[in-house]
Amino acid sequence: MFGFGIAEVVVALLLVGAVALGLLLRDPVVTVDDEMSIDGMSPAELDRRVFGRLGAVRRSQMGQVFPGHVALTSSSIPGWAILVGLLTFPVGLLLLLLIRQQLSLHVRVLPDGRGSLVQVAGKARKSVALEVGRIVSAEQTALPAQLVKDGFARR
Fold first, then answer.
1. Model confidence over 70-125: pLDDT tens digits?
2. How far apart are CA 11 and CA 92, in angstroms?
3. pLDDT of 23 strictly over 70
4. CA atoms within 13 A on the CB side of 88
5. Distance (Å, rounded) from C-alpha 123 to C-alpha 111?
6. Cβ contact 81:99 at 8 Å
7. Which residues of 107-130 are buried (b: 16+ CB within 10 A; e: fewer)?
């Protein structure tokens, strides 16, 4: 009736299977709401050390909201929208343009009684959130030289 042969059906199934596999392996979007206290480091010093490295986080763009507060932004298209867009081609491509999500992960450095407090909140791809966590955690383990010399640092 439609003139589809076995080869066309197999190719279509392989294409849909490849898209489904790609959607499963995508970098998911996560919600972050966390804070970390960094003792012995002023907010200005922590700004300089952390914000410089946040600008190099892949798949995001960093912009300063105000001093001590940056936002890492990126965009994402949900997996279901990609699948629907491919299944309803070519009209479905318009859906992909309309469904794009803007993701923002905010990082703030505030003064704390003993040093600084880093707050991270918002939505981001999982890989971006993990990289931000690694950068901030690295500062928590960067102990002053005097503490290391006196034997307080443990590995």
1. 999 988 777 777 777 777 877 777 877 787 788 999 999 999 888 899 999 999 98
2. 20
3. no
4. 12
5. 24
6. yes
7. bbbeeeeebbbbebebbbbeebbe
